[in-house]
């Protein structure tokens, strides 16, 4: 739908526009997936607290999460301790989280990664960093023989599509693997675990905990939800070619989120954090709002009685499980849960690429986001487990959470 560049409809197998066979990308553009990737880190952080529910809850939780081999050649070698600390993962941890644009009612529509986050947990295990990579970042994508993709230069979110495949029966695991391989080539980072996140699961999690408190930091008008003269819900804007700008539909009043702290139900939270077209800072504003949601949701889970109520905790953990497909890289989900259980909700630091400032270039008719030299330094710091030092030198790259969410 809104905000897609004209070139986003197809991509060539070479990535260089040389007339090679084309892969279908979705003609729809549900921005719901943009906000959902952050639930992957919630799955890891909140679950450790919820283990107070005992062995039954842990079994329900770990048994309900979909698991698959996602990382392939981008998997890191894990050091797992033995003896009294058997199963504990050693050293710093990097988890790749991808929110994908995929519809169950359109199996032939393909898929792409609309939201990409690296969750970095230092060797100290006392905090977590969430580093977002803009989906339009111009990168080199390696060849991927599984789908016949020969490699090329494209937006980073196209790597998922090229890995997903050229047939209607595309493979999400292969899409994730090529995305992970692309980041490994870009930053020298291998991954200890990975997760694919979907929309419906996150909305259910928000509703399961009774909604969240979010502090809106800029007036945000929805291009997706509005009311007509009869009070019915409908789309308030249409897409106008050739630049795909949103144009108001007469007689429809859009949903508007005003500045200030307020309580959001699941549908409101997801609608708010998917917006980019009518806010001044576009994708970077949406990225900031998404990461503010993760902080608010972690805080809500930690503070609500859902964790001390076995039935409520069971509902929440099942909702979390339904939101994620997880690759633990050969380590059980229970061991992952115990490994990350010491990270408190207020120990999550959210970092924006390019300091949240656009660095766009138009190349061969396509607009790309160019990662600055400092962003590449940030990725090097992530690889080397020195993000603390990077943040000390660049404090303005940290995303704040208005109202202490």
TrEMBL record:
Pfam families: LytR_cpsA_psr. This is Cell envelope-related transcriptional attenuator domain-containing protein. The keyword Transmembrane applies. Keywords: Membrane, Transmembrane, Transmembrane helix. Residues 112-302 form the Cell envelope-related transcriptional attenuator domain. InterPro entries: LytR/CpsA/Psr_CW_biosynth (IPR050922), LytR_CpsA_psr (IPR004474). It comes from Planosporangium flavigriseum. Residues 1-25 are annotated as: Disordered. Belongs to the LytR/CpsA/Psr (LCP) family. The chain crosses the membrane at residues 32-58.
